[in-house]
Amino acid sequence: MDPTICTQDLTRTYDGTAVVDSVTLTVRRGRVCALLGHNGAGKTTLVRMLSTLTRPTSGIASIAGHDVVTQPDAVRRHTALVGQAASVDERLSGRDNLVLFARLRGRDKASATARAGELLERFGLSDAAGRPVRTYSGGMRRKLDLAAALVDDPTVLFVDEPSTGLDRRARRDLWHDLRALADAGTTILLTTQHLEEADALADDVVILRQGRVVAAGTIGEIRRLAGEPRMELREPSLEDVYLTLTATEVTA
Ligand SMILES: Nc1ncnc2c1ncn2[C@@H]1O[C@H](COP(=O)(O)OP(=O)(O)OP(=O)(O)O)[C@@H](O)[C@H]1O
Ligand SMILES: [Mg+2]
């Protein structure tokens, strides 16, 4: 099957420094791919290029076969981004936010209202739907952010740091929601600094260090990278692999 997300030597430089450096990756339909890396590794920049918000300096990237530079409108139709910062308006109610997002995506008022109602129900926000978002908890805001991204059932969903600021319970709920979306066929690329999150949620893992891919594969393959488990020792944890790959000079 064609990969839904595909990049080849994708690069973005700022002031002559490559912050995303020759990244080649593919993510197949319905997979959850975790982009793992420290602060400044280039995760957000990569996601911004894939969602047409930042122009690549060189290399190519496509979403569902559409090139991010030459076919940005098609890419935008297929994608949605839940950013690191909330995209909803604090002063509006949850319902009004969702109606607004659906209208911006081209729905008429009746259809936007109906879609908002469906999403509020699905994310357990119906009771709070009429309250301004500033009265919502962090977990409720994150759910609303996700709901806003789903007004048009995107083919590919980008989620930048899904669980920042969430407590364990809210994080579990969010993982459950994301998993259900992927099982229904949405391709998800999430960025995270939390190994636990990648481990719990991802089918595939890409580890970035200073803009470069230092490891990529299924979660099982990445764990095995640390070497064969020695007899008396536990299997290498994802954390062992991650710390090794991101802390030491890696020669290709
Ligand atoms: N518009 C910009 N102008 C200049 N430098 C930028 C710009 N955007 C990002 N950078 C730099 O690119 C590097 C990668 O940033 P990016 O936000 O992609 O990292 P990240 O992996 O998402 O980090 P975090 O985990 O902190 O969110 C950083 O050094 C950052 O300062
Ligand atoms: Mg970031």
From TrEMBL:
Chief place of localization: membrane
Entry superkingdom: Bacteria
Keyword field: Antibiotic resistance, ATP-binding, Nucleotide-binding, Transport
GO terms of molecular function: ATP binding
Family annotation (SMART domains): AAA
Entry membrane topology: Peripheral membrane protein
Domain called ABC transporter: residue spans: 5-235
Compartment list: Cell membrane
Protein name as catalogued: ATP-binding cassette domain-containing protein
Origin organism lineage: Bacteria, Bacillati, Actinomycetota, Actinomycetes, Micrococcales
